[in-house]
């Protein structure tokens, strides 16, 4: 079955119900859609045409999905940074896109991600899934409070735009955009939330928790506002989810929260659903089942995705995605470690573990489920640490340790972490190796912390814009040279831990 895509007929998103749209999409062949997008990109995107030619590939020879699976991967260094931005756009025209979002990398130099309004509709469909299937926002007046950083930063602008699409479609949603300023968020809640049946906070997990805790201390009665939460950017535990739900007066984590799997380059790639949350809570209670399915004892993020919107493949245990955008992605290596599980396969696995209706974990079968496949991810396969939605790179931290005076104390080795404390709060923990014969003291630790903070603010735009000022200074622990727990001799050093 061939169905016009939302990018081809934008009015379909506004005119058709979520139920009808999802039924149409589930009847389509995702592989055929990915192959069709490849053929269009090969013909209409100058950079991709040059990329294929450089690899000796004739587009007309790619006729089957097996041919498609043999195409070279694209990524940031070999594609995004190798060709001028306009040449990576449809028709080679940057002006064909009407909005720009920004993300930053390890050097602090921003990467621009253009798109047109119609490219957002697939992403708006992910928000519609959350707001209708979980929050019942079609039947409840809803105040949506965007707590992501605003400006051109991708999280805030994308979220706001998609929520406006839902309001235009007829959902009784009013969008407030205080950004990541707690005082403005509290003013919005205090003045507006009493006039709505429910309030949705959207932001990075640790920041949303900070808002909830500080708001409660300031006297905000969260339990009166039927608060729902939408997260993005970081993996968190189910214990953390339960803790945050308790603080807003919620006893229904599956229907009062949702996390989005998104990237600056690919948009929202998948979203938690009541079903996926209940399944993840089952795995949290049965780590042996999690190890069997995911291959690791730690719990990954687990979301469902629309394969017609974002077509996933695996490459050496990492995720590859194909999808339409202002800069179309064809077999784009996003470098997240993870895997794929079909809906039927997941249900079969759960039955083998005697997890049938999942009611024990908060799922209500009467509300139904959509038979979408699952993608799971453990986070970036590189050495970054995610903190308040910002990617913290070892290269940035190293500069802080290389300043005059400090360089006389430290070896240059360190371990960067963002652990979750007993109260559910995140901290940026930096463990630093001292030079032989150098003693640890609080003055050195404080000076190193301030130096690293200064360099992170200078070099990393995401850190500067996403991380609340009170959370920007790392907690520094100084350890002796060749400490066996952190800096063993003769072992290849890893600069991050998760």
Automatic annotation (TrEMBL):
Coiled coil: none annotated. It comes from the Bacteria. InterPro entries: ANL_N_sf (IPR042099). GO terms for molecular function: ligase activity. Keywords: Ligase. Signal peptide: none annotated. PANTHER family: BLR5969 PROTEIN. This is Phenylacetate--CoA ligase family protein.
